[in-house]
Amino acid sequence: MILKTPRITLAAAILTAALASANAAPEASAQASSLASAAITTASTADIAAYDGVVEAVRQSVIAAQVFGAVVALEVKAGDTVKAGQILIRLDARAAEQLAAAGAAQVQAARAGQDVAAKEFARQKLLLQSNYISQAAFERAEAQFKSTQADAEAQLANAGAARTQSGFYVVRAPYAGIVADVAVVLGDMATPGRPLMTVYDPAALRVSASVPQTVAARLPKGQPLQIELPGAVVGRINPTRTQLLPTVDPASHTQQVRLDLPSGLTGVTPGMFARAWLPGGNAIGGEDSRLSVPSQAVVRRAELTAVYVIGADGKPLLRQVRLGRVSGAQVEVLSGVAAGERVALDPQAASRVR
Fold first, then answer.
1. 0.70 exceeded by the pTM?
2. For residues 117 and 48, which has the higher predicted lDDT (pLDDT)?
3. Which residue among 64, 93, 117, 232 is the one 20 to 30 A from 220 at the CA level?
4. By the 8 A CB rule, do 274 and 209 touch?
5. C-alpha to C-alpha distance for 111 and 272, rounded to whole angstroms
């Protein structure tokens, strides 16, 4: 006896699967047609370009010693905020103080001699009026008085120089700012010209960037420039002043563009990385173009970065891409898609379409 029931059951299963597939196809087509999508746009990059730069302090001073002396006191450390005229470093000034004291004593002696010479000159003048001395004797007394007076003035000047010299052993802040670096420790010997510390003014910062000379020559005048400080300031900011240095670097053939930052920015310090966005940056050599897609269309799964591209049949297909800069709600696509294609705006809904 031969049983034919399995064959009938298998045929029924195949028929059921075919019917389910036929029913699922319109459903999947309906899901694909309901997906929100956007076209991949092409934008010209000739209107704006970014150049790497660095944050600099408009006023930054490397403070050095003017005299020889051992460092005996460090009044501040790196990162401290200082006021104009505040004491930063003290050097051993004992010898200079002794010279200043000796100069003051010599001034007193010279003034005493000047007083004696003045009284003698007055007496000689009275004697001349009474014809008790000759004119020659009076002139010698007058010359002695003037010599004593000049010697007193010389001693006074020497004492002032000694006091000024002793003041060099106390290093003060030239202006209000922040101590960026301290290059000496207690006991070091300071010599004329040796850097002791660096101070900068945080209220006046700028971004300096090098741009090709051909780009610098075609920078449009009157158009606003922008500055980007990744990791410090969100978004782009407008500089308060722009300066293009007139000299060109002979090695790199670039010019320096300086963009002054507005005051009051927090977390911005000299040496930070910055970008200068300049209009007309890629005008030389023809216009370049870039592809961009909405940021919400990008799928990130572990190390995979992709978008769902709507195929010719209307179904989304996951395609890996390489991304570039983010500009607002758009992100630049360097490779993986072509102009004119459409991408799904809802990657999760696109992943469910089969």
1. no
2. 117
3. 232
4. yes
5. 60
